[in-house]
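Thanks for the sequence, V.! I ran FGD2 protein right away. Repeating your input here for the record:
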Amino acid sequence: MQEPEEKKIALELLETEQAYVNRLHLLDQIFYTELMKEAKNGKTVPEEVVKMIFSNISSIYQFHAKFFLPELQKRMEDWSCNPRIGDVIQKLAPFLKMYGEYVKNFDKAMELITVWSEKSPPFQELIADIQKRKVCANLTLQHHMLEPVQRIPRYELLLKDYVRKLPPQSLDRDDAEKALEMIFMVAKHSNAAIAEMERLQNLWVVYQRLGLEDDIVDPSNELIKEGPIQKISTRNNSTSEKYLFLFNNMLLYCVPKVIQVGAEFQVHLRIDVDGMKVRELNDTQFPHTFLVSGKQRTLELQAR
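Predicted structure:
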């Protein structure tokens, strides 16, 4: 007799989970443990750096090796009398939130590996030595570290497939659909963590370009748009090049610096968005002009 489609997918989930636990073992028990040991001996890099690179990989490994994989194995052994996995995955889903921390830290971890490989030859040599081992299958540490980032989307795909292949009267339908919804929410949580990390990184770059004015630096700010603009001087009917940064709460009116050392711009004026008005002008001499008036000041500007 041919295996039902849903069982094939459940078996694929089990096989990929087994391979995934092996990968986590390599990251936590080999890379992390050995690099930590050398760091403690003061031979490679500070212990803090190793901890920052591997984030919460130990918790992720323990959870999958000691809880999820054994539960899945047990369920697949009993498949003939209990053909279902939805309930097991429902138990797994809340724990997947811990991936948020790992995913958020991922870019920083990659950067640290690069920086410290250049700074500390013994650190680079130890990584190269581990990478040569058979268990690494000719792949780099960075490649292995990408695996947890890709695991939740993989669960989502397999489970979608599983739900699709379930017979309408299957006893697992309700549980499997609920499990899929939970995994979907976790994936969203993980993506939101990545988006938030990117937003903060972009914000930080903008603050550096502005020369970090203390009262402007606020992680809750959101950059909406930026770009060059012409300031119209009504006194002598001329224009001069300026630059605007529009945040959710303020408009920064800046002057590009001639000497590009450090900050790119100097903030000349800050207008609060609260109470600000924008009005288009019909000026034949200067097309595309508009007036920005706020509590602090009124500006006449010309767009491209």
